[in-house]
Design goal:
The protein is an alpha+beta fold and about 290 residues long. It folds into two domains: about 70 residues, no CATH class; about 200 residues, Glucose Permease (Domain IIA) (Distorted Sandwich). It is built from nine helices and 16 strands. It has an eight-stranded antiparallel β-sheet with strand order 11-7-8-9-13-5-2-15, with no helix packed on it. It starts with a helix and ends with a strand. About 40% of the residues are buried.
Length: about 290
């Protein structure tokens, strides 16, 4: 059965039809409601179906029994399940992910996939916000549906501002990235502006996706989705230690991470590599 599903998923036309040509917001709102139903039969059945279609590993989950599919989506992990690189010259991965497009920021341009550029200023909704990262480095981190959905501080940092931009909820898988131009600039997203202790700027852009599309930030009001307040810029003064939780998605999605000049990719960081939260992602040049 799994092999048959894998073959179907590999068909690009069918995959795109099933995940993007449906009424995305309606389907997303429905799954968001359905996933929170706390009924043992509904919870077990929906989690079993989810496991059939996704590569779900619950071996490191803090809990093994869930009251709803939502509780399973947003699960926490056992203590020590994600050790964080402690070297001060290392920027750690904020999340479990598959590495997508990454490289040097060419002026105001980055790529969502090979030969599919978009403007950083469009992603951030502000030309001025993009300037510190010109000629710097970027990486695209895709969280699949079955992965751990929380994201953490990549270093000791201060969060200064969050800009929430409302938008669509296209699937963010490689098939959609090949077919939908500037997809990340169209989807709902939150640009989280941070700085390291030495003032070095760091940007994490959390991009929501189809089905449950919801971004929650631990240093703000996690009782509500960011979407509940509408498009806005929120001034913040939040100090977060390296490895501490910053927020979570209620389903798989993407984080685009931006750094200024002065960093190189850590060993093993390449397209399609699977990485874990806390793993070395960037290293300061010259160290």
């Amino acid at each position: 059965m799994r092999a048959q599903i894998a073959r179907l998923a590999a068909n690009e036309d069918l995959n795109f039809l099933l995940t993007n040509r449906l009424p995305r917001r309606l389907a997303t709102d429905f799954i968001g409601w359905f996933s929170k139903i706390e009924n043992p039969i509904v919870a077990r059945g929906s989690i079993a179906l989810w496991k059939l279609f996704s590569d779900v590993d619950l071996s490191d989950a803090a809990e093994t029994r869930f009251t709803s599919m939502h509780a399973c989506f947003t699960r926490t992990l056992k203590p020590g399940a994600r050790p964080t690189a402690t070297d001060k010259n290392v920027i750690a991965s904020p999340c479990d992910a598959i590495v997508g497009a990454h490289g040097t920021i060419e002026g105001d341009h980055v790529h969502q996939i090979k030969d599919a550029p978009y403007r950083l200023s469009d992603l951030l909704g502000d030309k001025a916000a993009a300037k510190p990262y010109q000629d710097g480095t970027y990486i695209t981190l895709r969280l699949t549906a079955g992965m751990y959905h929380h994201f953490h501080a990549p270093h000791d940092l201060t969060v200064d501002q969050v800009t929430y931009i409302s938008g669509d909820c296209w699937n963010v898988n490689p098939i959609a990235l090949k077919r939908v131009e500037r997809l990340f600039c169209k989807n709902e997203r939150a640009a989280i502006r941070c700085r390291l202790q030495d003032g070095m700027p760091v940007m994490l852009v959390a991009v929501a996706a189809v089905l449950v599309a919801s971004i929650r930030l631990s240093f703000l009001d996690t009782a509500k989705s960011l979407r509940a307040g509408g498009p806005r810029t929120i001034p913040v003064v939040a100090n977060v230690r390296k490895g501490e939780e910053m927020g979570y998605f209620e389903h798989g999605s993407t984080i685009v991470m931006l750094l200024p000049k002065g960093f190189r990719f850590a060993e093993g960081i390449e397209t399609d590599a699977r990485i874990r939260q806390g793993q070395a992602l960037f290293v300061r040049c010259g160290t």
